[in-house]
Amino acid sequence: MSAKRNETAPQDRVLEITRVYAAPRKLVYEAITERDRSHLGIHGQHEPGQYYVGLSILGGRTSGTDLNRLADLAEEHGTGRVRTTNTQNVILLDIPERKLEGLTRDLDRYGFEYQPSWSRKAIIACTGIQFCKLALAETKNRAGELNDYLESAVDLEDAPRISVTGCPNASSDRTYPSA
Ligand code: SF4
To answer: pLDDT confidence of 22, banded at 50, 70, 90?
Structure first.
């Protein structure tokens, strides 16, 4: 990662995030300057008239029912192409402009977040104690609780990176390859 893209050293980011979580109401937050690369939200593709829609899957935990719904929506409104991101989210590709309204209406109906808060963009969570034999702590529910708190208490324009990890291996730290 170049210094231009990430002007805050990893150890500084940890300190900043600790401060946000510990005392968000008193904090004067110096936003981390790395730009938003989440791909969440509605964005134009290189192809004229085509869009992709990035959905937040908080902590990367979803259900078979929701995955089937997303597959159906991708086929109904686009070409069926779907991608997952390295931040545990999902992107529906090749949505023509005339289909965006119908797609977003369906996403609203099923409760998918396509215009997520800064904290939803920021948070990822490793597997944690439910399925990882190395884990010392639960992560997925805590990621949800943390998000609820941050959404209600902290307003940021730039999203930091928040990794909820279940042990010192830090698999959800995007600075390193994920387990
Ligand atoms: S950081 Fe990695 S090894 Fe540790 S609990 Fe999470 S998934 Fe398991």
So the answer is: very low
Residue 128 domain flag: yes
Domain span including residue 84: 41-110
Same domain, yes or no: 95 and 148 = no
Q: Per the structure, how many domains does the chain have?
A: 2
> What spacing in Å lies between the alpha carbon of 84 and ligand 1's midpoint?
20
Q: pLDDT digits over 1-20, tens only? A: 343 444 545 444 444 444 44
110, 126, 144 — which closes off a domain?
Answer: 110
Ligand 1 within 6 A of 142 CB?
no
**3-class DSSP assignment, residue 58:** helix
What CATH number has the domain bearing residue 72? 3.30.70.3340
60 C-beta closer than 6 A to ligand 1: no
Report the separation in Å between the CA atom of 168 and the middle of ligand 1, taken as the mean of its atom positions: 7
Q: Where do runs of H (alpha helix) occur along the chain?
A: 10-22, 64-77, 97-110, 118-122, 140-153
Domain boundary among 76, 92, 110: 110
Where does residue 4 fall: left (phi above 0), alpha (psi -120 to 50 degrees), or beta otherwise? alpha
